[in-house]
Amino acid sequence: MPRIIGTMTGQGFTSTIYEEEDGRVHYLADADIDADGANGQAGSKAAYNDTDTGSEFLANGGMSIVAGKVVCVHSWARSIVLLDTNNEPKIFPDGIIASTTWYRNRELSASDPNSYVDAQTVPYIVVPPLIVTSTRGVVRGCLARVTWNGQVVDCVVADLGPTNKIGELSIAAADALGIPSSPRNGGRNQPDVLYELWPGVAAPGYELQPA
Question: Which CATH class for the 3-36+119-202 domain?
Answer without folding.
Answer: mainly beta
